[in-house]
Specification:
Layout: H1 12-19, E1 23-29, H2 35-45, E2 50-55, E3 58-63, H3 71-80, H4 82-85, E4 87-94, H5 97-121, E5 138-142, E6 145-149, H6 170-191, H7 193-216, E7 226-227, E8 237-242, H8 253-264, E9 269-273, H9 279-288, H10 290-295, E10 299-306, E11 310-317, H11 324-341, E12 350-351, H12 358-363
Parallel strand pairs: 8-9, 8-10
Antiparallel strand pairs: 1-3, 1-4, 2-3, 5-6, 7-12, 10-11
Helix pairs in contact: 1-5, 2-3, 8-11
């Protein structure tokens, strides 16, 4: 393109043949180089050869395309007489695309300058014998159409050599640019239909695949809470001790102990120890069956009166299991609440884990639990 107008269109080979200057031969001179003799030899083989430049230690010749069959004999003679002619080296190259663009631009500028000269000097335009234009051309813009007012009569509208139009601005310019880009995209899509389909389908395919993966993969949810009771254990022995012979005015120990027993009697084995200290029972059971002592004796309670007739409640736990302290305290609190509410209320205790860190989520393999 030149001045916003397409000047030529074609492959690089076509453009080089059409607008190229042929081949360029560059010769590197030695100190005793004979330029006249070199020029004579080149023009003997290629009569249309032209010396383009003689700068410093280089000679540049332009060789036309039509003389390419003579290049072999020319290069052979130059190679054989290198020392005599004072040639250090030489080489030939074809016209580059940059030179083609420069040539097209120069031709366009030359054409415009010639047209301006014709208009300025006057010339016959049209087929109806209009008079020559000898004065300056004055342009008057009315709306978007340009009127050409001359001091001589121009009969038909076709006699005007050219017209100048006002350029679009603001909204009209944006609309023009949008329309041009739209049609460019339409034509590009028609010429490359496979690429266009891939551009539409590939992102859609990966989007659908990502949605399927998100919907099917397990989420990294927090672990469920753990209810603190003895239901997680297969079997358990629950002993409890109280002083049945206490002389307290209101002996609550047997009553609360009964409520404590009621929590486990239908599920686990309960053992009533009728004495203040439950420790001898623990020692005896450990001596008799240590495995059963460590795996089944998980929770226990003592109901003891201390001085001033105050009832002391003690929750015992086996530290071999992680959650037995909470289980023991919850059982004792439920016994007290059940006694005072006549079994109408209870306490349920749960242990909620801390939220998982990013590292724990990334290494989790148990479906997010």
């Amino acid at each position: 393109m030149s001045k916003g107008v397409v000047q030529c269109c074609g492959s690089s080979l076509f453009l080089k043949n059409k607008y190229g200057a042929g081949y360029h031969m560059v010769i590197v001179k030695q100190s005793h180089c004979d330029i006249d003799l070199i020029t004579k030899i080149i023009q003997t083989h290629v009569p249309m050869a032209v010396l383009e430049s003689n700068v410093s230690a280089e000679l540049a010749f332009r060789l036309p395309h039509e003389s390419s069959p003579s290049f072999e004999a020319l290069f052979t003679e130059l190679e054989q007489q290198r020392e005599l002619l004072g040639i250090a080296s030489f080489g030939a190259s074809v016209t580059t695309m940059e030179e083609v663009f420069i040539r097209v631009g120069e031709d366009n500028d030359m054409g415009l300058s010639q047209a301006n000269k014709i208009v300025a000097n006057g010339g016959p335009y049209g087929s109806q014998g209009s008079q020559a234009v000898t004065d300056t051309i004055n342009f008057q813009k009315t709306g978007t159409i340009v009127d050409v007012a001359l001091n001589t009569t121009v009969t038909p509208a076709t006699d005007v050599p050219f017209a100048i139009c006002r350029r679009n601005t603001q909204f009209r310019l944006y609309a023009q640019q949008f329309r041009a880009m739209f049609w460019k995209r339409v034509l590009n899509t028609k010429r490359n239909i496979i690429v266009s389909v891939c551009q539409l389908m590939v992102p859609l395919f990966f989007t659908v695949l990502a949605l399927i993966v998100v919907k099917t993969m397990p989420a990294f949810n927090a672990s469920p809470f753990l209810k603190l009771d003895l239901e997680k254990f297969d079997s358990a022995i629950v002993p409890y001790a109280f002083d049945a012979n206490s002389t307290a005015a209101a002996n609550l120990a047997p009553l609360i102990a009964a409520a404590y027993k009621k929590e486990f009697q239908h599920k686990y084995d309960t053992v009533e120890v009728k004495q203040d200290d439950i420790t001898p029972y623990f020692i005896k059971m450990g001596k008799e069956n240590f495995v059963k002592y460590t795996t089944e004796l998980l929770s226990a309670a003592s109901f003891i009166y201390s001085g001033e007739e105050k009832l002391k409640l003690i929750a015992h736990f086996n530290d071999q299991a992680y959650h037995t302290p909470g289980i023991s305290l919850n059982a004792l609190d439920n016994a007290i609440l059940s006694y005072y509410t006549n079994g109408k209320a209870s306490i349920e205790t749960s242990n909620h884990p801390l939220p998982k860190s990013i590292k724990e989520k990334s290494t989790s393999t148990d479906s997010g639990k």
